Amino acid sequence: MSSRLRSMVPAVLVLALTACASAPTQFFTLLPQTTTSASAPAAAYRIAVLPVTIPAQVDQPQLVVRQSDDRVALLEGEQWIGPLGDQIRAAVSDRLGRDLGAVDVYGLPQADTGTVFRIKLDVRRFESVAGQYAQIDAAWSVREHGAKGAGGSTMSCASTIKEPVGDGYAALVHGHQQALAALSERIADVVRSMVAGDTPSCPR
Questions:
Q1: Which of these, 151, 123, 147, 113, lies nearest to 50 by C-alpha position?
Q2: Residue 51: how many CA atoms within 13 Å on its side-chain side?
Q3: Domains, in order of start, for the chain
Q4: Which of 193, 183, 184 is nearest to 159 (CA)?
């Protein structure tokens, strides 16, 4: 190697390291930004949002984005702040807590009094297409547990929610936030019907 080439090597390494340093990993959350909007009055019942199941192919730290030619890409520079299943559970719990005024007691010691609505969510499809849409297909259920563990009614439903999104990965994540908010509203409607003593039906 000539002396000129040897002298160029450090400069090339510095440029490469600078390029890497200029593109840090972006981390995203499905929890929406806290707003000042009022929550529902405190409810006399509680909820328990159980752990969420998700498809194995999207159970990755990276955002998994569908390509136009039926391929998918794992975006190393765009990642979730935590496990995707936990992110979905937290987003649904947060929205239900605000819409219903109910405390999520999953994982907490519970007394044998009072009604708890157990919410189970099985995400069958979590699809992301940048600049086009964010889609969630999910099967979910609400089961009423009365005082001292007495069983009550159960409602099982399925929902498909597709939100159009703009350009950029932040817009894609926001689309999933909106889809989860819409899903949570449907779950909340069923809980309200059960609380009122009505026969609930699956929301469209």
A1: 123
A2: 4
A3: 46-196 (3.40.50.10610)
A4: 183
Tell me the per-residue pLDDT of 118-147, one tens digit each, with 9 for 90 and over: 999 999 999 999 999 999 999 999 999 876
Quote the pLDDT of residue 96: 97
What's the pTM?
0.85
Per-residue confidence (pLDDT) for residue 77, from 0 to 100: 95
- Pairing verdict, β 72-80 and 26-28: parallel
Look up residue 94 and give its two tokens: 């947060």
One DSSP character per residue, the chain reads --HHHHHHHHHHHHHHHHHHHTSPPEEE-SSPPP--PPPPPPPSSEEEEPPPB--GGG-SSEEEEE-TTS-EEEEEEEEESS-HHHHHHHHHHHHHHHHH---B-TTS---S-S-EEEEEEEEEEEEEETTTEEEEEEEEEEEEE-GGG-EEEEEEEEEEEEEE--SSHHHHHHHHHHHHHHHHHHHHHHHHHHHTT-------
pLDDT at 149 over 80: no
Per-residue model confidence as pLDDT tens digits over 59-95? 999 999 998 778 999 999 999 999 999 999 999 999 9
Give me the phi and psi of 76, to 5 degrees please: -65, -30
Q: Are 126 and 60 in contact (CB under 8 A)?
A: no
- Evaluate whether 79 touches 149 at the Cβ level (below 8 Å): no
The confidence score (pLDDT) of residue 49 equals 98
